[in-house]
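Could someone model magnesium ion with this protein?
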Amino acid sequence: MFQLNQRQCAAFLNSEMSNTIVVGAQWGDEGKGKIIDFITDKSDLVVRAAGGSNAGHTVINNGQKYILHLIPSGILWENKLCVIGNGVVIDPFGLLEEMAKLRSQGVKISPENLVISETAHLVMPYHKALDRAREAKLGDKKIGTTGRGIGPAYADKIERGGLRAVLLTQPEVLEPELRDRIIRHNETLAAAGVEEVPVEETVKAVLDAAAILAPHITNTVVVCHEAIQAGKSLLFEGAQGTYLDIDHGTYPFVTSSSTTSGGACTGSGVPPRMIDKVVAVCKAYTTRVGSGPFITENDAIGDMLHNMGREFGATTGRARRCGWLDAVLVRYAVMINGADELAITNLDGLDGLETIDICTAYKLRGKVIQYPPSTVADIELCEPIYETHQGWKQDLSQIKKFADLPPLAKAYLKRLEVLTGARISLVGIGPDREQTLTV
Ligand code: GDP
Ligand code: IMO
Ligand code: MG
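Reply:
Sure, complex below.
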């Protein structure tokens, strides 16, 4: 018989108390930052558990635009504790730059509202140099990374040669270890014919950054568990998206971490049984930055959105590739993440269209398939099967209630629920916090 444990009983009786994971259902940039910000008031802690400063989460409120890379977006709220979990890779210089930028925008950051896991791995300058060198060597087969050193930093972690954030609190241990790593990575850089990282200059710069960041570093597993025991709610701020996941994405055109809901647990030390809800964020169309297969890519949609000044990367400024909504991918993402709910963003991006297509299945070697194949070669052979919907041809951006959406927009959303098997709980009709409709 199904039984609730003590914590689940308490969560059931107190609807304010629940732990929620928010993930991207596509290739990143789904609007997670905006959705997380919208639901943050119901949470006490906002936790990042994967990725690094490759992420770029946009939050717009009161006319101010903030772009978060490593720092959870809860930092924009007062009295929220932000946690950078063990699954994240941290570039100390990028983090300090981000702190300075946010402070210049009036955001308060201290060890009281931002804590960093001792066991998170560090991204060092040699990781960024290696990232760039590998991409250059791949030429037109490049992954199109953000150049933030993410792949090489996770590779060092998995190879058991990385440096962890706890070392920022132990300069006497950090110094020789770092010097050793720089020398070793410089050999690889030299072999690739790339400029080496200056040893002493880098050691000094990292030790200076360590002195500033050390007060933030702690055992964040204990922080999360003590908060849960005290009846607090955690919100996990997913980075990237399901199809950039190292296991489930369009490998090798992926990032190097677990970006799906399971990664939120391993990347924070909060076990699956303590998660109450998973929300998958999904654009009303599809975008992708960087290389890799994209079955529903459509240049006309890209031109339309770019001409509206939309769909340029929050981290690198690159124009995002655009296309129709691919319900095959979203259906599979709902499955992988165990998503209870979908938050559909950027519905307003489709406002001007006469007709709107949704890809409902693929045809591969003459056979209709409902889920994406596992190899890039097969994905590239897939033909999208579309159904065409009539557009609403109306500006949605000023609508205040879900009930006031035009019937054709509601029909589009209803169809997405049927095709993906998840309930739509939020709908975005503009970039501002206020432009979010609760269903
Ligand atoms: P994230 O990485 O998932 O947080 O998404 P990004 O911030 O990289 O990209 C999403 C972009 O869409 C940002 O420019 C947001 O301001 C914008 N955005 C989010 N939701 C909406 C929406 O419902 N409508 C419009 N017009 N823009 C949105
Ligand atoms: P958010 O959290 C969109 C993409 C890169 C590249 C691939 C590998 O803002 O949704 P990496 O630098 O991680 O080694 O690059 O992953 N990528 C993202 N695309 N949004 C992101 O994050 C991304 N983070 C990485 O463009 O294709
Ligand atoms: Mg982004």
